[in-house]
Specification:
Blueprint (H helix, E strand, L loop, with lengths): L1 H12 L8 H11 L7 E8 L11 E5 L10 E4 L2 H9 L4 E3 L1 H8 L7 E4 L4 H4 L3 H4 L17 H10 L1 E5 L5 E8 L4 H17 L10 E8 L5 E2 L2 H9 L1
Parallel strand pairs: 3-4, 3-5
Antiparallel strand pairs: 1-7, 1-8, 2-6, 8-9
Helix pairs in contact: 8-9
């Protein structure tokens, strides 16, 4: 009851129609994170693009300066020397046909997938399984590569992939509540700067149209867009 009461008090302080400074928003998010576990802080970034148009899709990846505060299980599709390199670099699972068979059988105990270019023909066989889950390796995101060691290190250290959804919104985690304001701000800045660099040439008008933060079970807080301008231009 105490937890529910505390969150109710925080929600009562947040005015739905008001947009807050980043500092104020993070205060609300931290106070509203009343679960017994370390809640994840999520950002919802609304862009001025037409997500239905293929030339206005925004998709990329960024290595967050402070990671995401979670262990990432990495699966690598590789053979021969690259198989050995992947294992030595800390991959949790490495394989080829045997892994495809396991995945077709329902196995999904991994969070990220990396593949060497020569393995993509094989990986394509499970594209319908990996694709909808956002796990399909992609050369533009650095997950189809010959440098599997670097790719594994980036993913393990907090590499985050992002993409616009149907409503032109990018939903991304920026860390754990326990990170504190400074680390959460650093991670958010890295994400926003990358999203800005990926602005489609065909997108006209205001690019960043909305930003809100929330914790796993806490209230959602809208951010003043002037704050976003400071972050990406400052």
């Amino acid at each position: 009851m105490k937890v529910a009461k505390k969150q109710k008090e925080v929600r009562a302080q947040i005015k739905p129609e008001k947009k807050y400074s980043l500092d104020q928003a993070l205060d609300f998010v931290q106070k509203g994170a009343t679960a017994k576990f370390d809640e994840t802080v999520d950002a919802a970034i609304r862009l001025g693009v037409d997500a239905k148009q293929s030339n206005q899709q925004v998709r990329g990846a960024v290595v967050l300066p402070h990671g995401l505060g979670k262990t990432v299980r990495v699966l690598v599709f590789a053979k021969g020397e690259k198989d050995k390199e992947a294992r030595e670099a800390g991959a949790d699972f490495v394989g080829a046909d045997d892994v495809v068979e396991k995945i077709n059988g329902g196995w999904m105990d991994f969070d990220a997938v990396i593949a060497t270019p020569d393995m993509m023909g094989l990986v394509g066989k499970i594209g319908k399984v990996l694709g909808p889950r956002g796990l399909m390796p992609n050369p533009k995101l650095g997950t189809v590569t010959c440098d599997v060691k670097k790719a594994i290190q980036e993913v393990k250290s907090g590499k985050l992939e992002f993409r616009t959804e149907k409503a032109a919104i990018i939903h991304v985690p920026i860390g754990k509540v326990s990170f504190g304001k400074v680390k959460l701000q650093d991670n958010l800045k890295a994400i926003l700067e990358n999203v800005r660099r990926l602005k489609p040439a065909s997108a006209k008008g205001i690019y960043f149209k909305g930003l809100s933060l929330s914790s796993t079970v806490g209230p959602c807080v809208r951010i003043d867009m002037g704050e976003v301008s400071k972050i990406v231009e400052g």
